[in-house]
Amino acid sequence: MKLKARLAGAVIAALALVVAGLITAPPASSAQLTEVTGFGTNPTNLRMHLYVPDGVPARPALLVAVHYCTGSGPAFYSGTEFARLADQHKFVVIYPSATRSGSCFDVSSPQALRHDGGSDPVGIISMVRYVQQRYDTDPDRTFVTGASSGAMMTNVLLGDYPDVFKAGAAFSGVPFACFATTDGSSWNSACANGQISRTPQQWGDLVRAAYPGYSGPRPRMQIWHGTEDGTLRYPNFQEQIKQWTDVHGLSQTPSLTDQPRSGWTRTRYGGTGTQAPVEAISLQGVGHSLPQGGMAAMVIDFFGLSDDGQDPDPTTTPTPPPPGACQVTYTMNTWNTGFTAEVKIANTSQSPVSSWTLGFALPAGQTVTSAWNATITPAGGQVSARNVSYNGTIAPGGSASFGFQGTHNGNTGKPPAFTLNGAACS
């Protein structure tokens, strides 16, 4: 009850945003949110709701979307954009519901902080395995996101089950095991108030201790936090960064720092692309609230679920270099009626180029049949090669490369000119 009381005001404020129409509800569809029972081991009697969009392909991706205290799976379904994005990108969504008093998830007990230890994480994993078997979802594309209590559970699930989840996104959460208690309570005031600070290795050791002996890959992590969060205070943002960069063996120094929107500061660690191992977004002046205003779409990009991860970050405006400040090297290898082309884009300007698109005209009779490290459309004529998720930024003095295979009718000429985000290249 204490946890419920402390979080209720913040959640009510978030729900007011829903009422005000600031959070987009899922569109009308023949697909419906459905409750599932009998899904497997469920020590804390969690409830499970499932959303399967119309037209889901074979082996779809799976997202677990975890609600805040006083909330429910259906409330998180109607109050966030994940179902609409599932309709758009054709992935399945599980919405767990906590049933204890206060409707908070257990992120503090010794059982919850251990692989297969019991409590809520075990019930959520049973839901995941049920859907994986029933709908043949792709086990290599299983993800989790959540807000507040759900964000804390996101951290817990990534720590307990690195073999299940490939990535997570936490909105207004705390590090794995920060909320740990041994007295049976579910509230940790020191953690909530941002008073627990550990070294990166200490935080990382807590994650590693949750699943002794595990040596496989670790899930990628996206962290969101408002600077004015009065419920789970802002210092928890940096503590999560410490934890997950250490888990991935990364430096605390960002590989990229930018501002995708006014008041947002984004840092990426271990990579500069949309799917870096760790990404953190600090929201200036924002309190304790649900994901809104395009945030969910950035989660889907981070997971690689927007058109199979081929889309650049939609919140980043493509930046053109000055005319002549890019140089393209185009190397062809031809045979009979086929060819391959290797393309290198060098940024010779003093500014980074983001979300790049290289435009060029294929000579008559040439057609693209496959490509790597870029998406090329259409297959012939005037074409555009767009970056993929992991190579969307070209640093000053840096370069990006891609290639493609095609066919020709005897014309093995090269494109006469290139433009990068609309600016001519040499």
Low-confidence stretches: 1-5, 8-28, 308-317
Work out the strand percent.
25-35%
Order of helices and strands: HEEEHHEHEHEHHEHEEEHEEEEEEEEEEE
Largest beta sheet: what is the strand line-up? 1-2-4-3-5-6-7-10-9-8
The biggest beta sheet reads: 10 strands, mixed
What is the average per-residue confidence, as pLDDT, rounded to a whole number?
87
Q: Cα-atom Rg, whole angstroms?
A: 23 Å
Q: How many helices does DSSP assign?
A: 9
Which CATH architecture of the largest domain is right? 3-Layer(aba) Sandwich
Overall number of strands: 21
Relevant CATH superfamily of the largest domain: Alpha/Beta hydrolase fold, catalytic domain
Structural class: alpha+beta
Q: In the CATH scheme, what's the topology name of the largest domain?
A: Rossmann fold
**Portion of residues within helices:** 10-25%
What number of structural domains do the residues give? 2
Q: What general outline do the C-alpha atoms trace?
A: globular
How far is the first residue's CA from the last residue's CA? 66 Å
Characteristic key phrases:
426 residues; 10-stranded mixed β-sheet; globular; CBD2; 5-stranded antiparallel β-sheet; Immunoglobulin-like; signal; alpha+beta; Rossmann fold; AB_hydrolase_fold
Tell me about this structure.
This protein has 426 residues and is of the alpha+beta class. The protein folds into two domains: 2-303, Alpha/Beta hydrolase fold, catalytic domain (Rossmann fold, 3-Layer(aba) Sandwich); 326-424, Immunoglobulin-like (Sandwich), CATH 2.60.40. 23% of the residues lie in helices and 26% in strands. The protein is built from nine helices and 21 strands. The chain has helices spanning 2-19, 73-79, 82-89, 119-135, 149-160, 189-192, 200-210, 235-247, 295-303; strands at 33-36, 47-51, 62-66, 92-97, 142-147, 167-171, 220-226, 256-258, 264-269, 278-283, 326-335, 338-347, 353-354, 357-361, 367-372, 375-377, 382-386, 393-394, 399-407, 418-420, 423-424. The strands form four sheets. The chain has a ten-stranded mixed β-sheet with strand order 1-2-4-3-5-6-7-10-9-8, with helices on both faces. A five-stranded antiparallel β-sheet has the order 16-17-14-20-21, with no helix packed on it. Strand 16 and strand 17 (382-386) form a beta hairpin. Helix 7 (200-210) packs across helix 8 (235-247). The longest helix is centred in the first third of the chain and has 18 residues, at 2-19. The radius of gyration is 23 Å and the shape is globular. It comes from Nonomuraea salmonea. InterPro entries: AB_hydrolase_fold, CBD2, CBM2/CBM3_carb-bd_dom_sf, CBM2_carb-bd_dom_sf, Esterase_phb, Plant_Biomass_Hydrol_Est. This is PHB depolymerase family esterase.
